[in-house]
Amino acid sequence: MKPDPSFEFPVRTAGEHAADAVVHAIGVIAGLIGASWLLVVTAGHVSATEMVSLAAYGAGLVGMLSASAAYNLAPPGRRKAVLRRIDHAMIYVMIAGSYTPFTLNRLDGAAGIPLGVAVWVVALGGVALKLFASWRYERLGFVLYLGLGWAILSVAEPLWRSLAPETLLLLSVGGVVYTVGAFIHTMDRLPYNIPVWHALVVIAASCHFAAVAREFVVT
């Protein structure tokens, strides 16, 4: 009988596991502090729509980092298999959450609302895919991650007019770092590929956090 792929996990050395634990600790702590700070400093200074969109962004960021830590640091078994599905699903939530402050508050309605709705629809489809049919469509899931992340290019011109140059640079650098990391994650024979991937996620997420802060905190 062919083994259930949902119970097959990457084989890592003790060093790789330790490095991954350090990266996740840094990511989760930084994410919690950053998201909390963002909501505290903007409370009472931004509109209700902006506040809701920032909360969605913060929840997606912290949720993704926490789900990744829970899955990657858990011992092999049924619980880890469930956590992997949640981890992979939360990536879609994080991507959509990262779009939300910009599509709702910085892009004009003709560009922002349709893109925001489309991103969330695809993201929720990706969540369903990862939760209920993850191992049947792995390649599709990978393509959706990248496609959803770079869908921002479809509104490049209005984005260029709406955002500060620093914000555009931070968003671009973060997108490139995420993309490089995603391909490193697929290189199973590369030593430390998973800790490196997660370190790049933390770096890319930091770039996007700085972009959000630049737009909604720094005036």
UniProtKB/TrEMBL annotation:
Its main location: membrane. GO terms for cellular component: membrane. It holds the Pfam family HlyIII. Zn(2+) binds at H198. It is found in: Membrane. GO terms for molecular function: metal ion binding. The chain crosses the membrane at residues 21-42, 54-74, 86-104, 110-133, 140-156, 168-187, 194-213. Keywords: Membrane, Metal-binding, Transmembrane, Transmembrane helix, Zinc. It is a multi-pass membrane protein. The keyword Metal-binding applies. This is Hemolysin III family protein. It comes from Roseomonas genomospecies 6. The lineage of its organism: Bacteria, Pseudomonadati, Pseudomonadota, Alphaproteobacteria, Acetobacterales.
